[in-house]
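Q: How would the C-alpha cells look for this protein?
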Amino acid sequence: MAALQPKRRGRPPAGGREAILEAALGLLRERGISRLTTREVAARAGVSEASVFYHYRDRAGLLKAVFEQGLAPLLALNEAGAIAGPDRRTVLERLGHGIERFLEQALPAITAAQSDAATRDELAAYMAANDLGAHRGVKALSDYLADEQAAGRVRADIDPQAVAATFVGACFMRAFQAQMHLPKRSLPSLPAVIDSVDLMLAPRAPGQVTQATRRRSA
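A: Here is the predicted structure in C-alpha cell form.
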C-alpha cells in the first residue's frame, strides 16, 4: 500500500498570490461583490481557501490588493521623464492609456466596495492615507501643461487644470462605460479624444482671436 503523502505546512506557494488576484478581479467583473466569496476565488485560482486568507486576510484585504495592483500603470507615469518633453501627443497617449489601464482594474474594486459600508470605508481610508484619487492624474497633466504653456508650446489662453480635468474625465467615462458593458460606439475613442485635446492645445497664430479672448474682453 502506498504511503500517505504528508500534508504541506508553512507558507503557500508564491505563485498563488497572483492567481488569487486574477480570480478575484474576474469574479468582480462577472458577478459583483455580492457573489465574491473566498471559496469561489480559491476554486477559480486553483488554490486552497486558506491561501486566500494567508495572503489577503479577508475579502476587504482582497479588494484592496486588486486596487493596489491596478496602480502599477499610474506609478509608472510618476517615473522621471514619463510625463515630460515637447512631444505633447506622446505625453497624452502615455497618460491616457495609463489612466484607462488603472481604471480597468481599479473600478471593479471601487464599485464593489460601495455596496458594503465597512469595505467602502476601509478602501477610502487607504486611498486617503496614500493620497490616491482622480486628482493625481489631473495634477500630473496640469503641471505638464503649465510647463509647456510657459515654454510657449501650449496656448496661453487655456486653463491647464481645466483641460487636465476634462481629459481625465473623458478617460473615466470610457472606462466606466466598459465596466458597465455599455455600447462603445456612443463615446469617442481614446485616439479621437487625444486628437481633439492636442489640437485645442496648439498655440494660436499671432493676432488670432479665440472665444476665451472674446469673453475676457467683453
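The longest helix spans residues 88-113.

The two ends are 96 Å apart (CA to CA).

Upvote if useful.
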